[in-house]
Fold:
Amino acid sequence: MKLKNLTFKGGVHPPHFKEYTEKIPLEKAKEPQTVIIPLAQHIGAPCEPIVKVGDRVKIGQKIGEPKAFVSAPIHSSIAGIVKKIVPYTSPIGTQVLSVVIESDGSNEVDENVKPKGDLESLTKEEILNIIKEAGITGLGGAGFPTHVKLSPPPDKKIDTIILNGAECEPYLTSDHRLMLENPEKVVFGLKAIMKAVGVNKGFIGIENNKPDAIEVMQNAVKNEPNIEVATLVTKYPQGDEKRLINAVTGREVPAGGLPMDVGVIVNNVGTAAAIADAIQTGMPLIQRIVTITGSAINEPKNLIVKIGTPFIEVIKQCGGYKGKPGKIIMGGPMMGIAQFTDEVPVIKGTSGILVLNEKEAKISEPKQCIRCGKCVDICPVNLQPLFISQFALKSMYDEAEYYHALDCIECGSCSFICPSKRPLLQSIRVAKRELISRRKKR
Structure:
């Protein structure tokens, strides 16, 4: 199979600003004095606290227990005393019950944190249980519990695993640096996933604007006959899992379907590395790589940050703000979530902290739609964003549903390409929320 310069239909080419951090090696962030750890950092049910105020906890100790299948446990990222268990503002925009822990400076690690054995000797069930108990969720942004993703129903036959190393968001470089500096972890994690699912074919998809990462990963898999590196055309949203599947395998996930419907499971390269850590060291998911970047950051960096560290502390370690910040975003500019405060904590899904200056953050005044059709041409899901948006703006949600509003992947390509700067994505999101709310009430 030819695995060079693969791509999909549609998409856009936003300008990239990866030069801020793409050549900056990973650096361990300072140990936080206080962490705020939300008990819901993933898609699914929140955890219930299993510690109380006044308890002393250690690094890697479980502090939140899931009570549902679609959920993932939460662990302490530092050693110290539980000071509060209160609702706190999460970077996903809601109040989430959170455990506030003050460090005692001991850095004592929990006794349960120990290697789990050789990959060759672990069974499929044991690997899935390690992933579940380590609280591993997708690190690409969506935050789906990984053990659930790796447990498809018996009637869904999976034959391919794809690791997503595309990192198509214009500013982010955390996955890029991970592949350059820890390729062996990525490969180990992929092999663990393949064994857990019973699959013999694995791919690592990387956009061709990262030739050094492609070379490093190709070298890392040269003795792995069942794993190949697929190079992808640099185009947004190449990292969307359905676009990635289409580019690498040629298969098309049906509308409303899941990757498992075409025999594929996609995981982020960071998720694979977290699985490697959980098996090789026993350390659950208590930290992650975060790209701190943008025109309003003095010293952009790629930091390894403890979960629960407030954004402002991380930003201070990057020299603080350059001038007055115009907008703070968790993630990239295309699919990230704007923040109203810099006091929210880093969570498992925080791939980046992007801070734009006031000039870049200024939103253009929208004009009338000129029906140029550009949003239709570039939509990677083959939707008609201009019509869905117009229906949404008039609260005509039944009509928006008829035009498949719920199939929108919210990549923002339509808003990016629109010459009239219409609020296409924002209005479609409103329609989706309304339609989903209606379905839940039925």
Remarks:
- DSSP finds 14 helices and 17 strands in the chain.
- The longest helix spans residues 424-441.
